[in-house]
């Protein structure tokens, strides 16, 4: 595999009371990628981040960051890792400037006013630099947390639900900022509830449930492998059975024979070509149709489907 | 051992900034309370009291009142300093930073001890307005105040990690430290107590601290200065050890 900036092996976390939040997790993160960790609530996403960032003591397993064992060389590794937590946790009475300057110093960096200014400007917080954080909107507070995490110029950045509670416009702005970070060479691991977010931004996707990683792959490879196309064709006249000309296609009749439903294809848009062939076959068979509604499966469909299969298997 | 000065300095500066942001609560309030003690016990009642061990009563109570404020404020400052990040969740940043126990203590405990020293200086200045006094061993007094401030800042830090509610945070300073300081010879000499109260009073560790500070001020004490010093150093060592264990195990810090 490509150069791994973070390598996790057999990571297990059992909380007091016996709850196993992580169960022998193996995961490699490549340098410079955006990795989206998807999973339902309680899947173990935040615990995984906490274990890498030093907030959670692992019960077993090893974490290698930048080629060094975090259990031994935690100082040098932590200086290169940034974390934006899920909660809006910051001293609300501090000013934006002081909060970011504190983070810079806490991570051992010399006070660099130019760097702080650059970060605040890039996050559209410069005008608010002297404002107390409590006076800011929720979206701005979240950007302050991002600014704090960037103050020591991390090479590996964890974003735990970075756009939770943020409106659509601001969310898209944050996506641009995250993309800009990637351009600068920062490796980003983000957890999100918004599958759209992962679909838009991630290079690779990992799906976690019950503390176990179910799947890790390139986003496009997942969609290629598990994606399907669904086409609903409204027929002019109802059919009582599938004529032989179209029986070879993955279709079935619906709505009392008034609809022909196609589910097939593999990969991103892979079924669309076959739908085109299907319409030609319908024309050749003299079957008229009034409309076609085509829908390619999203990462969300795949995600929900995968988790559904897991539940059934359980 | 690696020590990250910038990290320690960042924590220290932030804690000091927090103190100045809440200057009324951190500084003015204890000074006002102490000034009232000096006014009532030092000037008004003290003028009618006999000297104790050759020290005028108004001056005699200075080390005890200083200790009362120093112990309470230093403990509260340090406990609040670490409890609030735990309570609000901002401790994530400290735990994820390349910061160990040494930098954390230097920052939080150093700031709490500094605030204690500033308070001590202000209280001594305030006392001067009400009573006349000379300090017999000024350098020893300064050193002893610093030692006590550092010890109780460490103690407060432990308290802030142990507490899981604001109520618990206030219990130790209010219900244990303050009564023990009052009963530890702040307003009287333990040696003047009738048996068995003298022996009972000597079971109070704060009595040794008050006595030690009084020796540095006036050269008179209820117990030998070496005993007071040894006890304080022992307490400092014990608190340091407990904090090292807390950081080693992650108790109440890391899940």
Fill in the keyword field for this structure:
heterodimer, A: 314 residues, alpha/beta, Rossmann fold, Alpha-Beta Plaits, four-stranded antiparallel sheet, B: 255 residues, mainly alpha, 11 helices, globular
Describe this protein's structure.
The complex is a heterodimer of chains A (314) and B (255). By secondary structure, chain A is α/β, with parallel strands linked by helices. Chain A folds into 2 domains: 4-224, Rossmann fold; 228-296, Alpha-Beta Plaits. Chain A contains 10 helices and 14 strands. Chain A has a 6-stranded mixed β-sheet with strand order 6-7-8-3-9-10, sandwiched between helices. In chain A, strands 2-1-4-5 form a 4-stranded antiparallel β-sheet, covered by helices on one side. A 4-stranded antiparallel β-sheet of chain A has the order 12-13-11-14, with helices on one face. The model of chain A has no long low-confidence stretch (mean pLDDT 88). Helix content of chain B is 77%, strand content 0%. Chain B has one domain (5-249). The model of chain B has no long low-confidence stretch (mean pLDDT 91). In chain B, α1 runs parallel beside α6 (101-130) and α6 crosses α7. Classes of the chains: A alpha/beta (314), B mainly alpha (255).
